[in-house]
């Protein structure tokens, strides 16, 4: 039974059912990006409290501001005394640096008031609630991770690991590309077919003998 190009009703030219679609040819940069995203899906613990040091100011305004006293206490026990001191130190230094050297590309801005106090951020910079703040934090950290911005992470363990490939998606895309590249064998135009039939009938009398 001939194989037809999807949605055309037209048979594929020289199709051999024993020939399979070629292996997925995914560009390296796309494959690495997909592997890193897959890693984060399988390891949600990456977004733990230790990640605060990646961007103390961002964590402070997106996550820490919504924590209850009990949640901060639990996080402190998880970090340990030295971890809490380290986070506080990083946060203080980051605030001073943001005031001295404002980053126009930063998600948040820090400004001093007339008396030297740090002014509150603009209203549109404030997350609506805890869920939105956490979602924005994870989104920023995912972007950072995917572009290779985590200097403490061994990316080679992910980038060179085929276990993080999404095989189903790659195979489906390879199949789509394979069939898109096939040249359909177009059937004879209907008008030409009628014309050819008429030519075959020429010369016949059309009178049936009894």
Which structural class is indicated by helix and strand composition? mainly alpha
Strand content: under 5%
- What is the element string, with H for helices and E for strands? EEHHHHHHHH
Rounded mean pLDDT is 75
- Tell me about the largest β-sheet: 2 strands, antiparallel
Which residues sit in consecutive blocks of at least 5 with pLDDT less than 50? Answer: 10-23
What oligomeric state do the depicted chains represent?
A: single chain
Number of strands: 2
Helix content: 40-55%
- Outline, from the CA principal axes? elongated
Features:
single chain; 210 residues; mainly alpha; 2 strands; 2% strand; elongated; CCD97-like C-terminal domain-containing protein
Descriptive notes:
The protein is about 50% helix and about 0% strand. The chain has helices at about 30-40, 55-60, 70-80, 80-100, 130-145, 155-160, 165-180, 190-200, and strands at about 5, 10. Residues about 10-25 have low confidence and may be disordered. A two-stranded antiparallel ribbon has the order 1-2. The chain is elongated and about 100 Å long. The protein has a domain at about 30-175.
Brief sketch in words of this structure:
This protein is mainly alpha-helical.
């Amino acid at each position: 039974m001939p194989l037809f190009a999807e949605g055309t009703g037209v048979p594929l030219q020289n199709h051999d059912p024993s020939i399979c679609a070629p292996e997925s040819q995914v560009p390296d940069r796309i494959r690495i990006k997909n592997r890193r995203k897959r890693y984060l899906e399988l390891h949600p613990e990456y977004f733990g409290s230790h990640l605060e040091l990646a961007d103390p100011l961002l964590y402070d305004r997106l996550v820490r501001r919504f924590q209850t006293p009990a949640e901060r206490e639990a996080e402190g026990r998880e970090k340990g005394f030295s971890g809490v001191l380290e986070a506080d130190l990083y946060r203080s230094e980051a605030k001073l640096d943001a005031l001295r050297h404002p980053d126009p590309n930063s998600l948040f801005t820090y400004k001093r008031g007339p008396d030297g106090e740090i002014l509150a951020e603009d209203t549109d910079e404030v997350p609506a609630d805890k869920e939105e703040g956490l979602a924005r934090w994870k989104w920023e950290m995912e972007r950072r991770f995917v572009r290779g911005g985590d200097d403490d992470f061994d990316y080679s363990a992910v980038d060179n690991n085929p276990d993080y490939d999404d095989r189903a998606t790659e195979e489906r895309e390879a199949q789509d590309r394979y069939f898109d590249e096939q040249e359909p064998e177009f059937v004879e135009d209907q008008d030409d077919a009628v014309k050819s039939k008429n030519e075959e009938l020429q010369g016949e009398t059309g009178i049936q003998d009894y």
